[in-house]
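testing teh design pipeline on a random one, pls ignore if ur not involved
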């Protein structure tokens, strides 16, 4: 079995712990490689390397920094199929989705490379004569990137590419479920021309590597995507660091009686069972309004029963495995909770017999907003159908959970669509499309328990820059703002 190392200060090195851990193929449960079990001491070395590289990288003109991103996009495109197969092998998602994962990284590299010639500030007037006022963007400094396993190429790209073009240096701590994808991603950055120390990789457990990054005084920014409990802990420990948090969702799709039900059916199935429900934007609630509920139940039950479980590399597979055994057990616990609370199980509800971390696509109906399966993030292939008498009732149900990431409404009524857009508490609302499918040139993020960060798009620069206000007084005399204004 191949063994892999940490990347610190331009060199591949072993961890000081002398310990390793295995990454498993979730479809077979077989190990695909051994990885270093990093420690706080390894983080210390990585941060020191990033600090050393920071001044020269900051002084490199942004268009020159952007060349690294353009080269990375080319390399990602050339190796798209190879990387997609790796994503499927290590994470489990079906191959077409894995290709989309890599394509998202390609798109992100190209988008933020373009920002190398922008990085706009603002000019404005001064209240005093012969005085100029503007803002500029400056890098945060050394940033820690803590990434999840469900988009093992795309999400590191969301964080690394804007951080780099803005002039920051990086310590990347990937999920221990997908360290090989992170290693390959870093290798591409190195081949693209990232100087030694600008990007560093430390694998290992969150309680060691993650905590050391979050609490290190020289790390000035943390970008985290993952579980809400972990994100809340980071917020408490990070102190005055700049912190970006994306912490999941409990996303809903409203279906009105006038909706194109065939279109809605496609969107719900894709949103609920794509990536086996392991997306922060996955649709885990359908809120059927008025007379639509029975037909929605019938259609979704039939489609869910027809979904085929299997390894993601097989073209016949619709739904791949969950990431690990714990995810299977968690999903099944929620199935038992749903039944105990009185929800009606229509389809699925159990893991199949055999190797691999699979769980049958699961559909409940008769779900009420107070049930745990309607309120808590399951992060598996489990969907609940709720009923609402009116659109306003449906929006109230949509807003009744602690999260606010993605949402959707299916209707032919433009007034209903815009009412939903205005009232739904979420960072994203789709009309006549599913809750998944964000595009890299638009902001991505949520409200409430999801967090406040906006990654991607033009707001993706905000996470990795500070705004500096600059005044240039060319009057040749002392001028006092607010005092000398008549």
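output:
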């Amino acid at each position: 079995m191949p063994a892999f190392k940490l990347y610190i200060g331009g060199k591949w090195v072993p961890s000081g712990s002398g310990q390793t851990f295995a990454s498993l193929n979730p479809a077979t449960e077989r190990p695909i490689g051994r990885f270093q079990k990093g420690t706080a001491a390894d983080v210390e070395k990585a941060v020191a390397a990033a600090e050393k590289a920071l001044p020269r990288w900051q002084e490199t003109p942004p268009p020159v920094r952007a060349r690294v991103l353009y080269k990375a996009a080319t390399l990602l495109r050339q190796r798209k199929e190879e990387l997609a197969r790796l994503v499927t092998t290590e994470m489990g998602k079906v191959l077409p989705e894995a290709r989309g994962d890599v394509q998202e990284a390609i798109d992100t590299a190209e988008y933020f490379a373009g920002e190398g010639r922008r990085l706009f500030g603002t000019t404005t007037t001064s209240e005093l004569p012969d005085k100029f006022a503007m803002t500029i963007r400056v890098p945060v400094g050394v940033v820690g990137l803590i990434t999840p396993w469900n988009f093992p190429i795309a999400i590191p790209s969301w964080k690394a590419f804007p951080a780099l073009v803005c002039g920051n240096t990086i310590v990347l701590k990937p999920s221990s479920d997908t360290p090989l994808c992170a290693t390959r991603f870093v290798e591409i950055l190195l081949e693209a021309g990232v100087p030694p120390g600008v990007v560093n990789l430390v694998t290992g457990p969150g309680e060691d590597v993650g905590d050391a990054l979050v609490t290190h005084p020289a790390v000035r920014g943390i970008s985290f995507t993952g579980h809400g409990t972990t994100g809340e802990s980071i917020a408490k420990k990070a102190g005055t660091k700049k912190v970006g948090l994306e912490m999941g969702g409990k996303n809903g799709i409203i279906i009105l009686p006038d909706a194109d039900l065939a279109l809605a059916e496609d969107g719900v199935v894709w949103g609920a069972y794509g990536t086996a429900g392991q997306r922060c934007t996955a649709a885990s609630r359908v809120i059927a309004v008025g007379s639509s509920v029975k037909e929605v139940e019938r259609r979704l039950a039939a489609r869910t029963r027809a979904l085929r479980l299997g390894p993601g590399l097989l073209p016949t597979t619709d739904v791949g495995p969950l990431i690990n055994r714990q995810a299977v057990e968690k999903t099944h616990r929620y199935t038992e909770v749903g039944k105990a609370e009185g929800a009606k199980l229509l389809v699925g509800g159990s893991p199949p017999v055999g190797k691999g971390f699979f769980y049958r696509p699961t559909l409940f109906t008769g779900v009420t907003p107070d049930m745990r399966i309607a309120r808590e993030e399951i992060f598996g292939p489990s969907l609940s159908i709720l009923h609402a008498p009116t659109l306003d009732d449906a929006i109230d149900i949509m807003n009744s959970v602690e999260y606010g990431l993605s949402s959707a409404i299916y209707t032919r009524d433009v007034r209903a669509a815009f009412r939903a857009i205005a009232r739904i508490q979420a960072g994203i609302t789709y009309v006549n499309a599913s809750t998944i499918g964000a595009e890299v040139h638009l902001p991505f993020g949520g409200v409430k328990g999801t967090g406040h960060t906006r990654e991607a798009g033009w707001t993706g620069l905000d996470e990795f820059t500070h705004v500096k206000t600059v005044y240039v007084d060319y009057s040749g005399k002392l001028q006092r703002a607010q005092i000398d204004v008549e």
